[in-house]
Amino acid sequence: MPQPITSTLDSEQQRIAGEALRNTVVDLIDLSLIAKQAHWNVIGQNFRSVHLALDELVTAARDFTDAAAERATAIGVSPDGRAATVAQNSGATGIGDGWLEDRAVIETIVENLSAVIARLRERIDATEKADPVTQDLFIEIAARLEQLHWMWQAQVASA
Amino acid sequence: MPQPITSTLDSEQQRIAGEALRNTVVDLIDLSLIAKQAHWNVIGQNFRSVHLALDELVTAARDFTDAAAERATAIGVSPDGRAATVAQNSGATGIGDGWLEDRAVIETIVENLSAVIARLRERIDATEKADPVTQDLFIEIAARLEQLHWMWQAQVASA
Amino acid sequence: MPQPITSTLDSEQQRIAGEALRNTVVDLIDLSLIAKQAHWNVIGQNFRSVHLALDELVTAARDFTDAAAERATAIGVSPDGRAATVAQNSGATGIGDGWLEDRAVIETIVENLSAVIARLRERIDATEKADPVTQDLFIEIAARLEQLHWMWQAQVASA
Amino acid sequence: MPQPITSTLDSEQQRIAGEALRNTVVDLIDLSLIAKQAHWNVIGQNFRSVHLALDELVTAARDFTDAAAERATAIGVSPDGRAATVAQNSGATGIGDGWLEDRAVIETIVENLSAVIARLRERIDATEKADPVTQDLFIEIAARLEQLHWMWQAQVASA
Amino acid sequence: MPQPITSTLDSEQQRIAGEALRNTVVDLIDLSLIAKQAHWNVIGQNFRSVHLALDELVTAARDFTDAAAERATAIGVSPDGRAATVAQNSGATGIGDGWLEDRAVIETIVENLSAVIARLRERIDATEKADPVTQDLFIEIAARLEQLHWMWQAQVASA
Amino acid sequence: MPQPITSTLDSEQQRIAGEALRNTVVDLIDLSLIAKQAHWNVIGQNFRSVHLALDELVTAARDFTDAAAERATAIGVSPDGRAATVAQNSGATGIGDGWLEDRAVIETIVENLSAVIARLRERIDATEKADPVTQDLFIEIAARLEQLHWMWQAQVASA
Amino acid sequence: MPQPITSTLDSEQQRIAGEALRNTVVDLIDLSLIAKQAHWNVIGQNFRSVHLALDELVTAARDFTDAAAERATAIGVSPDGRAATVAQNSGATGIGDGWLEDRAVIETIVENLSAVIARLRERIDATEKADPVTQDLFIEIAARLEQLHWMWQAQVASA
Amino acid sequence: MPQPITSTLDSEQQRIAGEALRNTVVDLIDLSLIAKQAHWNVIGQNFRSVHLALDELVTAARDFTDAAAERATAIGVSPDGRAATVAQNSGATGIGDGWLEDRAVIETIVENLSAVIARLRERIDATEKADPVTQDLFIEIAARLEQLHWMWQAQVASA
Amino acid sequence: MPQPITSTLDSEQQRIAGEALRNTVVDLIDLSLIAKQAHWNVIGQNFRSVHLALDELVTAARDFTDAAAERATAIGVSPDGRAATVAQNSGATGIGDGWLEDRAVIETIVENLSAVIARLRERIDATEKADPVTQDLFIEIAARLEQLHWMWQAQVASA
Amino acid sequence: MPQPITSTLDSEQQRIAGEALRNTVVDLIDLSLIAKQAHWNVIGQNFRSVHLALDELVTAARDFTDAAAERATAIGVSPDGRAATVAQNSGATGIGDGWLEDRAVIETIVENLSAVIARLRERIDATEKADPVTQDLFIEIAARLEQLHWMWQAQVASA
Amino acid sequence: MPQPITSTLDSEQQRIAGEALRNTVVDLIDLSLIAKQAHWNVIGQNFRSVHLALDELVTAARDFTDAAAERATAIGVSPDGRAATVAQNSGATGIGDGWLEDRAVIETIVENLSAVIARLRERIDATEKADPVTQDLFIEIAARLEQLHWMWQAQVASA
Amino acid sequence: MPQPITSTLDSEQQRIAGEALRNTVVDLIDLSLIAKQAHWNVIGQNFRSVHLALDELVTAARDFTDAAAERATAIGVSPDGRAATVAQNSGATGIGDGWLEDRAVIETIVENLSAVIARLRERIDATEKADPVTQDLFIEIAARLEQLHWMWQAQVASA
Lengths: 159, 159, 159, 159, 159, 159, 159, 159, 159, 159, 159, 159
Fold this sequence. Notes:
Chain A is mainly alpha-helical. Chain A contains five helices and two strands.
């Protein structure tokens, strides 16, 4: 079946960039759901700081999800961000059930961010030749997630 | 294990309201993911109207998800909005993979809204005695979703 | 003829809630026209206060008109807010022709608000079983109109 | 009875401009009620576009109603915008009862705009000598309504 | 002496709803004064989080005070929110004099919120028959105070 | 001496329009100073309404002063709005010294507005042939001042 | 016991400025409660003007309460703004129970403002040597309260 | 071929007003392109002032282009604002290639404004009978362009 | 005749502060009229910078006029800001008639600011004992006018 | 002739990047004129969606025009965006004269976007070595235009 | 060499006020650099609170730097805020290199604030006679820095 | 000592990117201090333009300082922006003491921008392999600084 949306990329470029984008969409949706889960279930004396910081992470994850998904459509590739797809394919490390103390939340978030960033770094390399426009989006996402990674890690760091 | 967040509800009231809220959280997250999926994959001459209207639905679904999840915490019940939980327990009817023509999108959204509203209607009855505060939230959610249901249905109706 | 917009209410519930909403639409449009009429025709030393307060009433009446009409559509009932319908069916007590002194304006508005509120109170009872979502809207409208009723009455009250 | 609000116009000028303004108030209130009626009752695949465009028309009609009514008061003439007056004297062509398909809505709106504009054009001529300030207001209203007339007509036009 | 503001409630309904509202006004003013007292006197390593969160509580308490007082006036009952009345009749549990460490502040706020919510829950039951409009306001206040109760409690909770 | 700013008007048109604009600048500055004087010195039970309404008049007078002065410059005529010029040439009727009761303020403002509007009406006629752009500005100013004239007069009118 | 917050003032300066600030906090809280009480209970033909003006007074009193209390903390002195403290120590003259006619409200507010201003004037003198920073805050509060005193008095003044 | 958009003007009125509007669209687009060209290429010590003022001119030219083009459509005449049409038919005097010193830029802009205004003045006369609504738009455009003409000329004027 | 607005100042303090404030009102109104006169009549290559900067001066002068006049009323003294009073009593040095080159405008403004500031400096001394609240206002005005004095002087300074 | 604006690029880099930027300026201005032409001349049942979407395209094209032109200046190259230059050198495919049905408009826009994007893609390659800053701007422009290309294409696509 | 900016202060007053202002500029720039350094290098469980609070301090320090520097210019004294001047002359106590734990950051900030406030207190005394306008600025800066000093100290205080 | 913040870069990449970022922080802080110094000390007839343009440069320099410093932390490298470090290590060319004429200010700013841009260009090359995310930030900074370089240079350029 012919694809309804055409692309200026050749089919190999489209395949590489499209796969990278589809996987990024899945990782970022999962990251937003994990952060929301923590936002609701965190307890402990740093509740308020952590509760608020998690919503900043949710906002970042949602905005980048949209950017990655619409970049996929722009090169003629249909994104898939349904719950079952996310549950099966996400590269994030996940979060446990129930109430969670603030320090455990912070460590969980740092871990999830590390996993998602590592996969993004690979995609930055993979798309350099295939599509510099897609690569530029991955660089922008990595820049913001690495900034957040520092901020979350700083809360559990000691000199 | 003692629950870390106490409630003024007795344990039976808490059980009824808590279950209703946890299920609502799951339904609404799924609704937001389905609407985003459609937002990206819709094609056809009404693309722009449908694309924009889907984001209004996403916003509504996300805001009510937060309201329901935080109501659960307010009565001492931990919400669960992780991808796997949503994939397994959602009461929404779902959406297919790949590009989707606008009329099919509209019909899919009407169907999902119907299913979610029907479950909300039952919870409005179920929580009347258990917790009028929770019931009031369900009434507010139903009011908005039924308004959206009309707007989506109006697009495929004929006199 | 089949109705183009379906509803989760059964036909008796739909009939009761629909009739209550259609009548409310008519009352509120009339209230907004009466308040505008007074807004233009008021004279007297309290002109400015009354002129401004009337526009707040107009805004409230218009917003609730829309809410009631769209609630009717949400349950599959077509609202009718045309001039002739309003002229025939309104439950408001109306306003005289020509310039009107400020004290007379205030008394006219208090009277119209009383009439509209009394009818709303009956509809709050009537829709309790038929549709709690519609009842909730009537409670919200009544709360605001009763607040305005106090404010207008306070201007002609003495201790 | 002496008029409470005086005017710098002589009585003949006041009569001509006052009558033109009072009729304009009636036409524009009716136009706003017709557009709201359509806003609620429209169905069809262009529901969203038409629904939104109708509210722009409502806003325009309401703003000009106020401008015309307050111009009448400024020249010492009491405006009459009550429901019964509108129902009897409006120059608009009206709208049918019940749900209405989008194309029928568009045609109805074009027809009503044509009728109201034609009457405004006559009043622009009639008030040129009597009161250039009132004429200027009619020119402003005509400019906007003719713009809307084009936009609505464009939806049913073919090259 | 005849009351200057009339009500559509009968005198027994007015008595029940009026008393509930007057007591709520007193509780909420006290809550706002207690939260401000804590806002100024808190010390400790969570100073900033607690200091900011207390002002959110003050804002909520003040907004609901106004809503409850104006609901009382709307049913013809005069509210009393003077300092001496608050000092004598408040159902809140109060706060100590002087500087207060952050953990002690949190526990004091949780306690005060619990006391005020418990009294609100009783008034929700008491006004169900007397006045559903007043009941609806109490439900709205309870929903927000129970949300704040969770957020404050979460800061001293452990899993 | 050659004028530094040229104009597309011929010298007779420039003389007529320029004189009308220079006089309008003087009248409007005086109107703004009179309204400010009243704004500070008004006393009486309608103090607050009159005090606020006077600032709306000040704002209108200042905005139109700028418009008229910059229209003069646009046709190559230098405007003169210095205190001594205003004191000598204003066509407004002025205001007395010291504290002034609210009713007296209202009558003074109505009188000043009447005088300024009458002169504007003459200039609308005078500039019709000389410069329709200038005439259009005078029509706009008259429209607003006549609206304010009604609002001030309405405060001392009786039916 | 050592004070937890240190100050650059010596202990005598701290005592004088601290006492002046603590008393100001009490007076201003009482003023805000009195103004709110009047805001709800005022009746009479100037209801709307007085009702709105009272909220401006509430806002001023609340903002200055915060400024004075935080100035106390800044010099190491704990403020006390609890209901019982206010009820016992306020220098305001208070307000009666129940509905109150507009003229009586105005006179009550003028009286309370006079009393609070007189005490502030003494504190401006008392703190000149002890702490010019605190004195500057009192000057700012006095400037605003004296402006409000004029505005309220103007409503009952006659020339 | 029948025109898809009808007009209330007769065919001669439509021809006159339509031609005037189509030519105005072309002049104003050219004016905006010339101003942008200058905005980028200006150099000299008044760079910043001139650079910023040019963008105000661009904004004015673009807004009036839209107004004129949509007025053409409103009377059933299709506007033509394509680059080739502008290049051939514009009545503006143009701008040279490459970097341009600030004084030269100012003189070029004054010259272009003069040419465009002169043509507008003719169209104000030409459309007086044909269509007062179109004439009113030309008066508004002339008023603004003549104001800008003064401001630009003032920069090269000497007393 | 008894003064309608009372003051907490004794009569000598009131006389000193009142006279200083009345004179300040006159100086500042004149300053605002002079700056507006320059705003319209300036020509030269720095037209745009000077034209814009003059409006900042107008805004400052108007805001301080209001502050000084309302401080006069707050101490029971009626301000006089009528055109004739300003023309006779102003301490500003004035501005010439007609078009004015930019450098001459700058020098005129510097001169006027110097004169007004010098008189303010005297009033700061004169009111130190009489009324520290009034003195504080003069200090605030001087601070801003001296800042503007620098900015205007900087335009004609050379190192 | 020496260039007035220097650059850190060597002359070959400057030549390559400068030419790419100058051509991009021309393409984007043409795109904005084409989109405006379509914005005014579109007819058909999707008039409103297409009319609004075209203005988003205009905004994007104008913003990027400015960015590209100012990047050219930043590297010392004068941009040329005059009408005649655009008419001769544009790489866009253009648009026909007169009214245009909505589907034809969409196809025309897709075609023009394809042509402009293809040329941008070549410039991304060409400037990689010459100037990564310029390349980065082209990547940003391509990302947005490819997104718009998808959105316009989606309206004529079928699955 | 004559100073380019004149002052109404005599040379001794200018010397005293000028020196005090120049030193304040240096202290405040250093304070802003120290706070930024801490903003980037803080780690520990209170990272987020401290990170955010430091930016409020930066904003305060920068705003007051500008105010002090522009006050210096207003009295004809050139401020010096270059890096080397700050490095040599600052009265702040500084901050160490590298990552810093949150408690150490708080203590460092309290110490720096103490040092800067102590020097400001001396300048408040020193400028009382020399220039009350400058003194007033120092009082305003001290008020805000002492408030911040309390807030930072509160984080390490215990009752 | 182990670094408290980890990075996904290897140690060599971290060393290269970290050094480039730390030097950029120093250059940009110095640029902001130099621009502020000029902002206060500039004199001459272009005072206002230059004074305002310098604050745009300050804003740009401060925003990029933060971006570079937080990118350093994101890769585990502590930034150093203290006054002494800036005074010793900055690559900017600096600014002289005391009042400075506008043309000299412009030349100084152009020189400093050139020096900082040249160093940035080297870092763009150096980080291409080490860290594309850091390189992307340098490209963004260079793009903006080169735009500002053109704008400042344009003020002293001649054709």
